[in-house]
Amino acid sequence: MKRRDLIKFGGLTLARAGAVRFPLLAQDGMAMSPAAQAPLTQADYTLRIAPVTVELSPDRILSTIGYNGTAPGPVLRMKEGKQVTVDVINDTDTPELVHWHGMLIPSAVDGAEEEGSPFVPPHGRSRIQLTPSPAGSRWYHTHVMAMDDLHKSTYTGQFGFVYVDGGNDPGQYDQEHFLALRDWEPFFTGPGTMADEDDETHTGPLLEKPAVLNTAQAGLEVSSTTYSINDKALGFGEPIRVREGQRLLLHFLNASAIENRRVALAGHKMKVIALDGNPVPTPQSLDSIFLGVGERIDVVVEMNNPGIWVLGATEPMVRQAGLGVIVEYAGQHRQPLWVDPPKSSWDYTIFGTVASSSPAPEQTIDMIFEKIPSGMGKFNLWLVNGKPYPHDREFVLQQGTRYRLVMRNRTDDAHPMHMHRHLWELAEINGKKTAGVIKDTVVIPYYGRAMVDFTATQPGLTLFHCHIQQHMDYGFKALFRTA
To answer: Which CATH superfamily is 17-170 part of?
Structure first.
């Protein structure tokens, strides 16, 4: 059965372009004990975890858990290097964590149980202090495990943008929008019942495909047929209203718990200027962009083609089921138009340079990713170097040492791999070498291979995992320890 067989199409819809911003108000790396009473001093930011409703459309209203009464939560704008205090108030019945994805911060405030970050207790509160770094587009989200509960963790509405201002943005654009790609109402499906028509990583050289495949019956997977950009499905809410000649800065985030995604703005090219919030050495103007789960891409668009256009998923069923927003030029009165972009393969290396200015790696860590079909009963089991989590003292780093991480994907899925509290420099993907592309999340292609370099600069524990929630829940994670 194809995804289209499960989707009932509604009318053409549109999505709200931005998210509510927190005002930037006037101590590092510490989590303060939960307190029953509010602290005497006011925090720079407050995040309240509580039930919310999300009105994707008048006839599609969802109940979930979010931040500050919305999902996504507010855009938090911070200044690089300026210490901030965040109060997290948990108005739910379960312990919670808030992870600061892409930040170079101590493990105590990173928001990962595996690293020793303390939970925010049910109906309790915690205060954390952190120094935002590096500059660029980051995000925050829950980091509890979900297992077989599709009403927990990243399946909920607990996510939002953080933008860290480094003071070097010339501001040469007329509008700025934060756009989170999202799926809702997840459900379990049998293996192969939801064909992913947007998975382009199968076209690679398949360098890591095993000679003998495991043909055992695969376990249940998670899917969705309800989508949006931010909190509105395509056709509801306000369009992005523009004038000819304007320049738009668009911050994209794939906030899915389930799928990698390709998007395009019909009738326009998008100039990619940053990946995961980090400026790229070689910006590129493209017809579409591809984001793994957890990835961010910043683009600049020249508004030079008057009309009313659809910005959305290139996969028709996903776009028509809600993942899109209307871009409307002033003075235009016509039906919104979608035009399929040319077919292309996503290639990180086009944004890079020939040679790296970073030190050469001193040591290499080899990692093999495998899937055991139905290895956890109803669900698949995921292995790193032959074992599921935990990998007790298997990956021990020396402070200040430069490492090359070789990730070999021997599974039939494309995995968005994320390492907390560190940044990677992409060195090679499927045999293509590059340098200068700095990321915190990299999609390892279907039966493919990627190499990244990083320096162990963060003392303590660092979590490494696939950002697809179900994969992480069932073994696909490991702890690095910096001695």
So the answer is: Cupredoxins -  blue copper proteins (2.60.40.420)
